[in-house]
Amino acid sequence: SGVVRIDGALSAATADALRDFVDAERLRCEEEVEAGGRPSTDRFANLVLLSNRCDLLLPLQGPPLDAMQELLGEASALGSLLEEVVGREASFNELACLISEPGSKQQPLHPDTPYSPTPPLYAAFVALQDVDAEMGPTIYLPGTHTEAEHTAFYGGNLEVGRDTVGLRTNVVDEEYIASRPVKLGLLKKGDVALYNQQVLHCGGANESPDRVRRQFYISVRDTRVKGVQARASIRPALLGQLTLGAVRDELRELAAGGEARRFAALHAADMQAPDGDARHEALSHERVAAISAMDSARKAHE
């Protein structure tokens, strides 16, 4: 069907801690952007329908790392499944939290990526609180990740869906939507919806009077699939810097009481003031590359 559910992938305590962190980090980032400390795109991603919605890009430290440990660590079902599907060399593509406040409208139905024979991206949406129908859960159309379904969705012309800039601008066929089965992402706190990002979906309208829906998410990209454009919700300093295998290796080191040196170097690069000269950013990425080379050499001798 292109979408599966994994119950209890994140513990309630970790979900609660991450939810509180997200709320505080959002305020901190908004203040930083408003004060001119850095551009909005360093901390927030663009969304379809921005009113009462927020796509917060998260740092590689603290509660987000704790959540990644439970979701992708050595003993996790999700980490092993993703590694089997896309391989260790898949790019760690997104690290963010979608926030839907009361009054947010339903998004247009869309796939995140156009059709290709091999799916290029998979995303895991994690509920940080129980989600009921009133809160605007994600709406999925299972089975719509195929060539035939994309062709039908785009009115018989598959090329309409080959977005060349990574933006979702296609007109939605209402008759198509009404003709397909729909599943709502009615998740309990800590549950995961893992989906092939070719599946048609959208964020629902949050019609609750006072409940905010927070959805932590990560995604991985199969780098063997070429020519697919998709904007990644991840902090610029982290973009293209980690593979799924590298993430799992770092998490394994942390779980064993070791140091996650690559994570630390990337976090330092992320926190570098944007008005600092470009040399500092280059040096930060050189440090990440050097640490990666040292880790590879160490593993070769183990």
Notes on the protein architecture:
This protein has 302 residues and is of the alpha+beta class. It contains 8 helices and 9 strands. The chain has a 6-stranded antiparallel beta sheet with strand order 1-7-4-9-3-2, with helices on one face. It has a 3-stranded antiparallel beta sheet with strand order 6-5-8, with no helix packed on it. Helix 1 (12-34) packs across helix 2, helix 2 (63-72) crosses helix 6 and helix 7 (261-271) packs antiparallel against helix 8. The termini are far apart.
Topology at a glance:
Layout: E1 3-6, H1 12-34, E2 53-57, H2 63-72, H3 77-86, E3 91-100, E4 121-127, E5 138-141, H4 147-153, H5 174-178, E6 183-184, E7 192-196, E8 200-203, E9 213-221, H6 244-255, H7 261-271, H8 278-301
Helix content: 25-40%
Question: Percent of residues in beta strands?
Answer: 15-25%
Largest sheet: 6 strands, antiparallel
The ordered string of helix (H) and strand (E) elements is EHEHHEEEHHEEEEHHH
Number of H/I helices? 8
The shape is: globular
Are there runs of 5+ residues with pLDDT below 50, and where? Answer: 277-288, 297-302
Structural class: alpha+beta
- Please count the beta strands (DSSP E, at least 2 residues each): 9
Q: State the strand order across the main sheet.
A: 1-7-4-9-3-2
| Average residue-wise pLDDT | 88
Straight-line N-to-C gap = 42 Å
How large, in whole angstroms, is the Cα Rg? 19 Å
